[in-house]
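Hi there,

I know you've been waiting on this one. I reran it after we fixed the sequence typo, so this is the corrected version. Both the input and the resulting structure follow.
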Amino acid sequence: MEYTPMIYRLAFASLQGMGVDLARKLLDVVGSEERFFTMKEKDLRSLTRGRSKIYGDTYRDECLQRAVREMAFVSEHGIAATYFTEEAYPHRLLEAADAPAMFYSLGHCDLESAHVVSIVGTRHATQYGIKFCESLIGDLAQRVPDLVVVSGLAYGIDIAAHRAALKHGVATVAVLPRGLNRIYPAQHRDDAIAIARHGGMLMTDYTSQDAVQKSNFLARNRIVAALSDCTVIVESAGTGGALVTASLAMSYNRDVMAVPGRCGDEFSAGCNKLIATNKAALITGADDLMAAMRWESAQPAPQQLELFPELTQEEQAVVDVIRNHGEIHLNMLADVLHTPVYKLMSILVELDCKNVIATLPGCRYTLI
């Protein structure tokens, strides 16, 4: 059977353990992706001196068949598959030896922007951490017009960073721990849709056929760290994924900053330790980040304040209920409006983007 060059690239990128560094080494020896898959197993092993199962005839054929199915999936859903040899592959990510040979994305975002910051933290974000994300991104948005915020769409600080970016019109990239056939966590599906529709990007190095494993979540962090020049840890316990991201960022020679917290606070322990051991610079706001990264502040363009944003009938109904209660839980809001939660979440995201409501911990909402 004949395959297109793209099928060969998809299959090559899906080989077990394949990253940019290994891909370069193999291609230097073999010559091309097509030749890797068309050579006889004996000849390929002899040429590469490889013992791994990736050189086996059966394994390589399975990869090609998976690539055919993946090509059909990405084509049907308008997903971009970007190979490491293409110009569209971001240069920062390419600098990491363990970067993926291929990544998949939905949406459009300038990954080559001069101002990209990764913001991560605990899943158990406090109001302190959420407010810091809002303040930092809001201030940066006014001073850095081409700002891009990268995070992992996880609970807590990650989703707070994405929502703050959406609210302030900042492009944001969500790096996912699984294929784009399903958003994880499912509760953030509407946020993911808003990201892809409002100048952001959903990104992953996993195919729609890859199994979801625990290791995916930590592996995802290498992309979060590599995509930017600076990683900000907002809240973190003494151990956790955010600290792994910080370590990865340091290994890529990226700047790392941490938000200080009170002594004894569980989810400030990690940040305080990073600062105390000189592994991260202390950050208290946009000024610290701007100074550390030597970013120049742009002159803000005159803007007319939109005191009364135009609302749809559904949005106005939600606003009226929240106004009557002052502060309301998502489930109660759904009961009062007789609206399914999944549909209500989409309306709430739009209201958040219009700067009409504020999201509080525990799935509660209030008017701004």
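Quick highlight: The two ends are 61 Å apart (CA to CA).

Best,
R. S.
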